[in-house]
Design a protein that fits this description.
The protein contains six helices and four strands. It is of the alpha/beta class. It has one domain: Response regulator (Rossmann fold). A four-stranded parallel beta sheet has the order 2-1-3-4, sandwiched between helices. Helix 1 links the parallel strand 1 and strand 2. Helix 1 crosses helix 6. Bound molecules: 4-nitrophenyl phosphate. 4-nitrophenyl phosphate binds next to loops.
Length: about 160
């Protein structure tokens, strides 16, 4: 059975589609399913922000076909790991969790890289292309750390 991972931000057009595309490019798709969602409804059906599409394509990753969708409680059942870009996204999802088992699937994405520091992926929506490049670099490092952790867990039968 595949391990399912969900990346979550507010709008699902800047950070989480980038995180989805980067992580997917690093994992074998016969073993992992990667998706993304936003806690807000603002951008349902929208493609990623043009600046996210651009920064990804500069690194050889095509996210132009992704479309925004809103996080929903059934995602707690469908996914094994749910990663929030920031603490507001995490809090919004935890409010929708009615089981401990579901709440325990939610973590900050940067927790793997900076344990215990409550580090957030900054929202680049009102920023510049440079902010999107910095978000890419952060997501690239965070997903490297995540891939190591996930492949270790699989190798140890967890
Ligand atoms: P994201 O960025 O959460 O990284 O997709 C945002 C996108 C849209 C809005 C806010 C943040 N918005 O307010 O529409």
């Amino acid at each position: 059975m595949k391990t399912r991972i969900l990346m979550v931000c507010l709008g699902n057009i800047c950070r989480s589609p980038l995180a989805e595309g980067i992580l997917r490019s690093k994992l074998p798709n016969n073993l992992f399913e990667v998706d993304s969602a936003g806690t807000a409804h603002y951008h349902i059906g929208d493609p990623p922000d043009a600046r996210s599409i651009k920064v990804a394509s500069q690194k050889g990753i095509d996210i132009s076909n992704l479309r925004g969708r809103q996080f929903r409680p059934v995602d707690f059942q469908k996914f094994d790991y749910i990663f929030a870009m920031d603490m507001a996204n995490r809090a919004d999802m935890l409010r929708l969790a009615d089981k401990k088992e579901h709440a325990s699937k939610v973590n900050l994405l940067l927790e793997t890289l900076f344990p215990g520091e409550n580090m957030e992926v900054p929202d680049p929506y009102y920023g510049t292309e440079r902010d999107f490049e910095q978000v890419f670099e952060l997501l690239d490092k965070a997903t490297d750390a995540l891939v190591l952790k996930l492949t270790n867990q699989i190798n140890h039968g967890k």
